[in-house]
């Protein structure tokens, strides 16, 4: 990959034009004046804990994981996931696929229909150049199948069909066939198209609507139950093979429901279950702290991603202004969550601090009367939904529990 040196473009990092591979040898400490704040951090202990949790979970339940790489867009972090047993990666579009194919990933699931001529031409060229590259695409309409036939079917000399999954969806959701009859029509269109091979079904249960998490979990379970019925129907109609069908569901909140439906309660022939959680690697302090199936596991998952900011002002009682805002930390799922304060080299729990609003570069912090907080103190902000923190940083330092910088990982958004 490119950008193998740390330069002035990598915000927060010390100057020096250091090779990326030598960051850990610099003796930098994140919170002791070496870095310009605000600064993001990845905690190495948490990354290793969470990698091990998913590896063990997949082994116990006999399932695979293709982590959704849109979360981090980091080849270095994806390499750790693959080393820990991941099948390959999931991406949202072909631009993301380009990053990981360039980085040497050999199995890629594009978890959206691909219809653009340039996108499909790129993937076709990659498959011609590298016969060992596995790319799986989605279809959810007869029109989409026709576009693949026109723009992506392999050359006659290439004996490998293009593998596709039939995407299933629910009313009000994003993509996906909404009825069994529609799913059968799309599957029949794939069967009638030379050069395409239907290898399974796919769907995303993570955004089902509901008043609370209990209702959302129930609706996700209902969607997965219907999806299992569709698989049975497609197998019965000869549109899917009786064995080896790929079923790919499972975001970061309800993948246990996928395992329950397609492993514990599956009554058909053998299926290969491919989960796609993107956020298990870093976990978080908010959304997934509430909804991850790993919550309650022993040992528990650990939030690995955090942002540190300085107290810039105490302009009135009960209010502090932090030097970090929407440009630095996720705000789409929850406001940032203060988890610690560092005062003159010592760190303590946040003690009731609460972010009440954010601007582009600032956060408004409510400070209880009994909590001491001074201008110049550092506040650690936990994140909710890590995806939209990663996309704000080109280079993220990896730190020990003592905040020694041991490595750095680059993102390619």
From TrEMBL:
Gene3D superfamilies, per database record: Alanine racemase (3.20.20.10), D-serine dehydratase-like domain (2.40.37.20)
- Specify the superkingdom: Bacteria
Q: What class of enzyme is it?
A: lyase
Kindly give the InterPro entries that the UniProt entry links to this protein. Ala_racemase_N (IPR001608), D-amino_acid_metab_enzyme (IPR051466), D-ser_dehydrat-like_dom (IPR026956), D-ser_dehydrat-like_sf (IPR042208), PLP-binding_barrel (IPR029066)
Does Lyase appear among the keywords? yes
This one is known as D-serine deaminase
Native organism: Nocardioides simplex (Arthrobacter simplex)
The record's EC number reads 4.3.1.18
Q: Which GO terms describe its molecular function?
A: D-serine ammonia-lyase activity
Mind listing the UniProt keywords for this protein, alphabetically? Lyase
Report the Pfam families cross-referenced here: Ala_racemase_N, D-ser_dehydrat
In its keyword annotation, does this UniProt entry include Magnesium? Answer: no
Q: Which PANTHER family match?
A: D-SERINE DEAMINASE (PTHR28004:SF8), ZGC:162816-RELATED (PTHR28004)
């Amino acid at each position: 990959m490119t950008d193998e040196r740390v330069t002035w473009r990598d915000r927060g990092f010390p100057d020096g034009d250091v090779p990326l591979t030598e960051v850990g040898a610099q003796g930098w400490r994140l919170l002791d004046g070496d870095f310009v704040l605000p600064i993001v951090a990845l905690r190495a202990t948490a990354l290793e804990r969470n990698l091990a949790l998913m590896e063990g979970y997949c082994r116990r339940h006999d399932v695979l994981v293709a982590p959704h790489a849109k979360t981090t867009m980091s080849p270095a972090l994806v390499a750790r996931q693959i080393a820990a047993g991941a099948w390959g990666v999931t991406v949202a579009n072909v631009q993301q696929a380009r990053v990981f194919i360039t980085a040497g990933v050999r199995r890629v699931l594009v978890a959206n229909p691909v219809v653009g001529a340039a996108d499909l031409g790129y993937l076709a060229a990659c498959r011609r150049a590298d016969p060992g590259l596995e790319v799986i695409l989605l279809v959810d309409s007869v029109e989409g199948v026709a576009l693949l036939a026109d723009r992506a079917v392999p050359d006659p000399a290439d004996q490998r069909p293009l593998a596709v999954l039939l995407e299933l969806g629910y009313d009000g959701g994003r993509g996906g066939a909404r009825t069994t009859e529609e799913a059968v029509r799309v599957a029949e269109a794939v069967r009638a198209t030379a050069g395409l091979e239907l290898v399974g079904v796919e769907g995303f249960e993570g955004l089902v609507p509901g008043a609370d998490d209990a209702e959302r979990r129930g609706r996700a379970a209902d969607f997965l139950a219907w999806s299992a019925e569709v698989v049975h129907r497609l197998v019965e109609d000869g549109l899917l093979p009786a064995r080896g069908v790929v079923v790919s569901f499972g975001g970061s909140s309800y993948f246990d429901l996928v395992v329950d439906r397609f492993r514990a309660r599956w009554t058909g022939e053998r299926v290969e279950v491919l989960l796609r959680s993107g956020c298990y690697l870093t976990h978080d302090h908010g959304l997934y702290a509430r909804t991850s199936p790993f919550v309650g596991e022993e040992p528990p998952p650990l939030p690995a991603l955090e942002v540190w900011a300085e107290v810039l002002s105490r302009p009135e009682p009960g209010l502090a202004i932090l030097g970090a805002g929407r440009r630095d930390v996720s705000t789409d799922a929850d406001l940032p969550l203060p988890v610690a304060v560092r005062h003159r080299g010592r760190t303590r729990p946040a003690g009731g601090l609460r972010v009440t609003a954010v601007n582009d570069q600032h956060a408004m912090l409510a400070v209880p009367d009994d909590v001491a907080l001074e201008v110049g103190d550092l506040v650690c902000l936990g994140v909710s939904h890590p995806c939209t923190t990663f996309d704000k940083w080109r280079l993220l330092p990896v730190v020990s529990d003592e905040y020694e910088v041991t490595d750095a990982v680059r993102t390619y958004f």
